[in-house]
Amino acid sequence: MKFVDEARARVQAGNGGRGSASFRREKFVPFGGPDGGDGGHGGSVYLRAASGINTLADFRIERTFKAAHGEPGGANDCSGRGGADLYVPVPIGTVVRDADTHEELGDLTRDGEELLVARGGKGGWGNQRFKSSTNRSPRQFGPGLPGERRLLEFELKVIADVGLLGLPNAGKSTLIRAVSAARPKVADYPFTTLHPNLGVVDVGRHRSFVMADIPGLIEGAAEGAGLGIRFLKHLQRTRLLLHLVDIAPLDPQADPVRDARAIVRELKKFSKNLALKPRWLVLNKRDLLPAAQAERRARAIVRALRYRGPQFLISGATGEGTKALCEAAMRSLEAHDRAAREHASSRGDAGVAPPGAT
């Protein structure tokens, strides 16, 4: 199925049923009085996060979702049946906005989480609701209120623990293939990856994390060059970024240091918060150079970038160095989770898992 991360849909809740204007008519009961029942409430529309969906492509086919209307009230104080609520499945990680006001209505980040997006109309009152000491035979009734209608915008942000960042052909897809069961397309031309790919990295018993590979960036992406920066939103939920740098580019004019700085600039243009996330330097394709030369090249790049954080020299093609990288990433994520739990415990929120925790 085609990967779609943005969509629109119209939702319409059910209208409330009309109340009844009825009078009791029985033998030997000459003044039975009003007995009209209330109308049923209209059904509401909910969005429900479902783990079996990973794209918004279904909303390109079906664009309107309507809940059932409430039924009208009846005689003998019988209320009308309420309309059934409608539950629309969406991928986990879907951000929902009102298309007219641009108000964010919710962010569905957990499997089974539900969000009310259109409330059903209330049923109208029957005439027995209007009786009083001065109005013994009321003939008025409520018509029932209309249900809410909305045009919604959906934006999917994949949920992953670790995100891969870099130029086209930096080796991101090769790395995720080497450390997980994900099988994105790999080829020797730019922009092979056209949509985000997710892979589960297993580093031991009950120890794993989710890695996300997004299409490569180039300088000027913020202005629309290449595939632009629309896919960077998929890294906003990650807790750790791995910045892949090709230490042996095929183009003799390419400068790994200049290209790495360009990627950082694009990050800052897109989101200051994303630029502030922990970012490790991963120097890839060591297999294309002799061991000593690869290490010298890696040290020179790190020195030129004035980088002080964790750094790894790996080969995604042969798997060399990837085990140490994944182990270090797992330890970092576990430390992050422990710190989050301790912080929650100190605030009295123990038991609440941090977003994105595995």
Quick summary:
This protein has 358 residues and is of the alpha/beta class. It is 19% helix and 23% strand.
How would you characterize this protein structure?
There is one protein chain. This protein has 358 residues and is α/β, with parallel strands linked by helices. The protein folds into 2 domains: 6-130 and 137-156, Spo0b-associated Gtp-binding Protein, Chain: A; 162-346, Rossmann fold. 19% of the residues lie in helices and 23% in strands. It contains 5 helices and 14 strands. The protein has helices at 172-179, 256-270, 272-275, 291-305, 322-346, and strands spanning 6-12, 45-50, 64-66, 86-91, 94-98, 104-108, 114-118, 149-156, 162-166, 197-204, 207-213, 240-246, 279-284, 311-313. Strands 10-11-9-12-13-14 form a 6-stranded mixed sheet, with helices on both faces. Strands 3-1-8-5-6 form a 5-stranded mixed sheet, with no helix packed on it. A 3-stranded mixed sheet has the order 4-2-7, with no helix packed on it. α4 links the parallel β13 and β14. α2 (256-270) packs across α4 (291-305).
- Rg to the nearest angstrom? 29 Å
Q: Approximately what portion of the residues adopt beta-strand conformation?
A: 15-25%
- Class by alpha and beta content: alpha/beta
Residue share in helix: 10-25%
- Highest-level CATH class of the largest domain: Alpha Beta
